[in-house]
Structure formats: structure tokens, C-alpha cells
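Need C-alpha cells for this chain, all 85 residues.
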Amino acid sequence: MVRTVKEELHHYLGIEKDPAFTVVSRYPETMPQYQVGHLSHVASIRSQLVAFPGLYLAGNAYNGSEFPDCVKSAEFAAHSMHEIY
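Here are the C-alpha cells for all 85 residues:
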């Protein structure tokens, strides 16, 4: 999985340097269960990001664990970066 991502980053973005670290998380036979109030907590975290320009969050920990949710999360982060840069 890591090899494929590195190959695609090189192919599409020209990135040749290896990442400082990689983490692969798997959830066999389960779906993450968010606690009551999770979305409020995420909203609070996002509102605090203004204090950290250049820091963007994306992934299944924020607004959904399904693949389309992760894609939306990445698109939102990329769009936010594009607005700044």
C-alpha cells in the first residue's frame, strides 16, 4: 500500500523523496464509532486551525470513515490550501 502511494505521488506530483514516516491503519471487520458530540469537537478543532496557517486536516477521523467521506475531506483540505497559496 505504501509503495503504491509513493509511486502515485511520484507519477502525479513528481515527488521523489520518501516520507519521513508512514502509518497504515486497518479496521478489520469493523467501522469506527464516533462518540456523541464528535462533530462539535471536530468543528472546534477546525475553528482553532486559523492559529496555525499551513496546517490542514484530512482523513477518516473527522467527518466520516467511508471512502467518499475521506475523498471529500482531502478535497476540502486541498481547496483550502489552494485558496491560501
